[in-house]
Amino acid sequence: MKIILTNEVSGLGNAGDIVEVKDGYARNYLLPRGFAIRWTKGGEKDVEQIRRARKIHEIATIEQANEIKGRLEGVTVRLKVRAGDQGRLFGSVTPADVAAAVKTAGGPDVDKRRIELDAPIKTLGSHRVSVRLHPEVVAKIGIEVGAA
């Protein structure tokens, strides 16, 4: 099935790209979550608008990405969450939580879709999180999860 991506999808492409994927992947994952729209001749006209919107939000150069990476890695991020007696969280830490914590810690604005968690964060303590700023630049930030 031919689709137009409306968001960046890891391993598939960026917003505004026209890609061919398996029907089930498109119907069951990409389309319901709003990551893509079906390709049509009329939809092809929307591609340029999607690409212009992407250019506004994306980090343009590697130098700019490296500057933001330096600012991110210099910030100490602390999250206060509800936890049980054994140090297990009630729920888990989401990329949106991490983005908000970075902003409150004085770091730069980070899009939650660029934050990559290797595994769900469900315990108190120190954790490492990757932030994909540019296809060639990835920042690793440390997060201290503490009990509220």
From TrEMBL:
<dbReference type="InterPro" id="IPR000244">
    <property type="entry name" value="Ribosomal_bL9"/>
</dbReference>
<dbReference type="Pfam" id="PF01281">
    <property type="entry name" value="Ribosomal_L9_N"/>
</dbReference>
<dbReference type="GO" id="GO:0005840">
    <property type="term" value="C:ribosome"/>
</dbReference>
<keyword id="KW-0694">RNA-binding</keyword>
<dbReference type="InterPro" id="IPR020070">
    <property type="entry name" value="Ribosomal_bL9_N"/>
</dbReference>
<dbReference type="InterPro" id="IPR036935">
    <property type="entry name" value="Ribosomal_bL9_N_sf"/>
</dbReference>
<protein>
    <recommendedName>
        <fullName>Large ribosomal subunit protein bL9</fullName>
    </recommendedName>
</protein>
<dbReference type="Pfam" id="PF03948">
    <property type="entry name" value="Ribosomal_L9_C"/>
</dbReference>
<keyword id="KW-0699">rRNA-binding</keyword>
<comment type="similarity">
    <text>Belongs to the bacterial ribosomal protein bL9 family.</text>
</comment>
<dbReference type="InterPro" id="IPR020069">
    <property type="entry name" value="Ribosomal_bL9_C"/>
</dbReference>
<dbReference type="InterPro" id="IPR036791">
    <property type="entry name" value="Ribosomal_bL9_C_sf"/>
</dbReference>
<dbReference type="InterPro" id="IPR020594">
    <property type="entry name" value="Ribosomal_bL9_bac/chp"/>
</dbReference>
<keyword id="KW-0687">Ribonucleoprotein</keyword>
<dbReference type="InterPro" id="IPR009027">
    <property type="entry name" value="Ribosomal_bL9/RNase_H1_N"/>
</dbReference>
<feature type="domain" description="Ribosomal protein L9">
    <location>
        <begin position="13"/>
        <end position="40"/>
    </location>
</feature>
<keyword id="KW-0689">Ribosomal protein</keyword>
<comment type="function">
    <text>Binds to the 23S rRNA.</text>
</comment>
